[in-house]
Design goal:
The chain is an alpha+beta fold. The chain has 5 domains: about 160 residues, Beta Barrel (OB fold (Dihydrolipoamide Acetyltransferase, E2P)), CATH 2.40.50; about 250 residues, DNA ligase/mRNA capping enzyme (D-amino Acid Aminotransferase, Chain A, domain 1); about 90 residues, 5' to 3' exonuclease, C-terminal subdomain (DNA polymerase, domain 1, Orthogonal Bundle); about 90 residues, DNA polymerase, domain 1; about 70 residues, Rossmann fold, CATH 3.40.50. Helices cover about 40% and strands about 20% of the residues. The chain has 24 helices and 24 strands. Strands 12, 13, 14, 15, 16, 17 and 18 form a 7-stranded antiparallel β-sheet that branches. Strands 2-11-10-3-9 form a 5-stranded mixed β-sheet. Strands 5-4-7-8 form a 4-stranded antiparallel β-sheet. Helix 3 packs antiparallel against helix 9, helix 14 packs across helix 21 and helix 18 packs across helix 19. The protein is elongated, with a radius of gyration of 33 Å. It starts with a helix and ends with a helix. Bound molecules: 2-(butylsulfanyl)adenosine. The site of 2-(butylsulfanyl)adenosine has 16 residues, from strand 3, strand 8 and strand 11.
């Protein structure tokens, strides 16, 4: 820098110092006039502008800030609470829609107002409605000078000091001149909330364990926790809470951001402001309803809570013409999502018996809509869950047990079966008995045991238990097993329950019977196409599919047999190791003494371990399982696996993790595809993973992968990789 430039810089810094001195003096005079003399010397709006300018300059040139600057009294949060601040532009709320017709009506209303033809194709921006706390951030020349809550809309609370601790809110923008009010939502991600509430509950327990009383309570939901964290007089607490922020619009602006909402939001993003992510341009109300439906499906996969979607007219000049009613803009509407948690009555508890004999308690509910879906049963997991304990033995639902007749709160997470979040014991009848697990299997009357250290009750009937046999058959043909097209759970159940008149045998008793089905039906003069659920075409297709399935890889066969504890990964290890069915079964019989070389070899294959090895040996020693194999194996062509025979693919030998939602295929399909190309699929991300395939909503797993330096690709890259 030459001497002239240096002089110029000193001059301009002096200018800022002088302006800071001047603003400090003006504001102090205004304060004295207002508070001490009750004779204001300037308009409120002028006062606010001066103060914001001073905050900005002090933040840029802290060396010139006065010791007792009037800005230190701004938003600091006195003991009494937060200072009130007037928004430069009122913060409105949104009109609500609750049904598709309301959206159609919204569109008609807009067109009527603007005098547009019904055929006019209106463009909207559709986005998610975050369930958080509204914030208005004021930037001057790209510097954050104030943050305020919505309050009554005209005036909010100055929470600047707390907001300065939120990492996702930039204090300096990459660009941006003049005055700008950015509007958005501050919220807490679901994982963060769970973590916070866990700590909160631990704290409550610690205090109570010391025999003290506490007014502390767990937070109700992420919204409640976010609001509590912002409206905190101790900013260090706000800092520790890990809040997030996403912008969804703006208030007063000195420079317009664009002609269309879509571009304006992109411009905000380019300035460094995090903006709402799931935005989409939609044409007409049909598109809007489709957007709503898509959000409804992915809602539970999102890392944060939403309570609806918002539709906004894209063209800002049309927005301007539409203007606002007293409380809300005419150019926008919120379409509310149905609640995800609902209270209902638990009418009964049924016990279902699975293919490995596990007894699963299923709660039968008085039907309710949860997250837009009709729900009538919930999983109750196991005895511990019903009694108020999780798998680690810690209390859940504050230790409240679940009884038939209880009022329970139900929620859906992902596409999985609904679960119970809570139970209201104040509504419980006094004589309501505690639920006890049956001693005998409800299907076959065999003894039920709960092995030590396990949470699951098991029926000991094995092949005597119809539920277990049917479960094993269903598993054999399922996508986890040999994946028969056109032979689902319903069909298998039907074929299992029918008996041949001559010998009284079931049409389908074991997996081998599937491959003899056509022959046996012909022998008994039965035309499957005449039976309920069947037709000429589906019958032909089934028999063709059965023929195709005769050829099977060793690993697939091992998985399909549904041996307890043995999943696809270990089946693959076994197949890789023994290569042929004969070598495998021979090795198993040698290992059955559970000592010696064959046993040592078996338990060490891919870390298989004793539990699986024992389960394998027990199955193979079971006489009914032997009958199954005797009837099945001769029907099959088992492909001997020569490792070198397997074609090398881009992913062969690689370890993969799928996370988030895939759009083009289900996770299961993706897993099967990956395995068929020689990859191993795992559920947890670790440094041993080669590749993570992340769809939308993949939150914590992709984050972890990035931290560990594991490559993360999206679904498109994945499809290309396997194509
Ligand atoms: S637009 C004129 N977009 O919902 C108000 N609001 O119920 C324009 N909210 O106070 C707001 N997500 O705090 C808009 N994507 C979104 C939103 C959103 C959440 C909040 C907002 C507003 C409230 C209205």
């Amino acid at each position: 820098m030459d001497i002239f430039e240096a002089q110029k810089q000193i001059d301009s810094e002096n200018k800022f110092k002088q302006r800071i001195d001047e603003l400090t003096r003006l504001i102090e005079e205004a304060n004295t006039a207002y508070h001490d003399n009750d004779t204001p010397i300037m308009e409120d709006s002028e006062y606010d502008q001066l103060k914001l300018e001073l905050i900005k300059l002090e933040r840029l040139y802290p060396q010139y800030k006065h010791m007792n600057s009037p800005t230190d009294k701004v938003g600091g949060g006195t003991k009494k609470g937060f200072r009130k601040v007037k928004h430069a532009q009122k913060m409105l709320s949104l009109d609500n829609a609750f049904a598709n017709e309301d959206i159609v009506e919204f569109e008609k209303r807009i067109k009527r107002f603007l005098g547009l033809e019904e055929e006019y194709v209106m463009h909207y921006v559709a986005e998610t409605k975050l369930d958080g706390l509204a914030l208005s951030l004021t930037y001057m020349d790209g510097v954050l000078v104030q943050a305020a809550t919505r309050g009554g809309g005209e005036e909010g609370e100055d929470v600047t000091n707390n907001v300065l601790t939120i990492r996702s809110i930039p204090t300096r923008l990459k660009s941006g001149l003049g005055f700008m009010e950015v509007r958005g939502e501050v919220f807490m991600e679901k994982d963060e909330f769970a973590e916070l509430n866990k700590k909160q509950k631990e704290l409550i327990k610690r205090v109570e364990d010391e025999g003290k009383k506490t007014s502390l309570k767990p937070y109700l939901n992420p919204r409640n926790a976010a609001a509590g964290s912002i409206r905190q007089l101790d900013r260090e607490i706000t800092r520790s809470r890990n809040l997030s922020f996403l912008a969804h619009g703006w208030g007063k602006l000195s420079t317009p951001l664009g002609n269309h909402l879509w571009d304006a939001m992109n411009n905000l993003e380019a300035m460094g402001i995090p903006v709402i992510k799931d935005r989409k341009v939609c044409k007409g109300s049909k598109d809007l309803v489709a957007y709503y439906e898509s959000v409804l499906h992915k809602r539970s996969d999102l890392p944060f809570d939403i309570d609806g979607v918002v539709f906004k007219v894209n063209d800002l000049s049309l927005q301007q013409r539409l203007g606002n009613s007293t409380t809300s803009p005419r150019w926008a509407i919120a379409y509310k999502l149905p609640p995800e948690k609902v209270w209902t009555t638990l009418e009964d508890i049924e016990i279902q018996v699975g293919r490995t004999g596990s007894l699963s308690p299923v709660g039968k509910l008085k039907k309710v809509m949860v997250g837009g879906v009709n729900v009538s049963s919930v999983t109750l997991h196991n005895e511990d869950f019903i009694n108020g304990f999780d798998s680690k033995g810690d209390t859940i639902r504050d230790g409240k047990d679940i009884r038939i007749g209880d009022t329970v709160e139900v929620y859906r997470s992902g596409d999985v079966i609904p679960r119970i979040a809570d139970v209201d014991i104040s509504k419980r009848k006094r004589e309501s008995p505690k639920f006890t697990f049956p001693d005998l299997c409800p299907v076959c009357n065999s003894k039920v045991v709960r092995p030590e250290g396990e949470a699951i009750h098991r029926c000991t009937g094995e092949y005597k238990c119809e539920a277990q046999v049917l479960g094993k058959l269903q598993y054999f043909v399922s996508i986890d097993g040999l994946n028969f097209d056109g032979l689902g759970t319903k069909m298998i159940t039907q074929l299992y329950h029918r008996k041949f008149e001559g010998n009284g045998q079931r049409w389908l008793e074991n997996p081998g019977d599937i491959f003899q089905l056509e022959k046996n039906l012909i022998t008994n003069n039965i035309v499957l196409a005449d039976e309920e659920h069947w037709g000429e075409r589906s019958t032909q297709e089934l028999f063709a599919e059965i023929e195709r399935k005769r050829t099977v890889s060793l690993s697939k066969l091992l998985t399909a047999l549904g041996i307890r504890h043995l999943g696809s990964k270990n089946s693959q290890h076994l197949a890789d190791h023994y290569q042929t069915w004969d070598k495998f079964s021979e090795a198993l019989s040698q290992a059955s003494s559970r000592e010696g070389e064959a046993w040592d070899e078996l338990i060490s294959i891919g870390g298989l371990g004793e539990t699986i090895a024992n389960s394998l040996i027990e199955s193979f020693q079971n006489p009914v399982f032997q009958v199954w194999l005797d009837s099945l194996i001769p029907e099959l062509v088992i492909l001997d696996l020569q490792s070198s025979d397997q074609e090398a693919t881009a992913i062969s030998g690689k370890s993969l993790v799928f996370t988030g939602k895939l759009e083009k295929m289900t996770r299961k399909e993706a897993q099967i595809k990956a395995e068929s190309l020689g990859a191993r699929v795992y559920s947890a991300v670790s440094k041993n993973i080669d590749l993570v395939i992340a769809g939308p909503g993949s939150g914590s797993k992709s984050k972890k992968a990035n931290e560990l330096g594991v490559k993360v690709i999206n679904e498109e890259d994945w499809l290309e990789l396997i194509s």
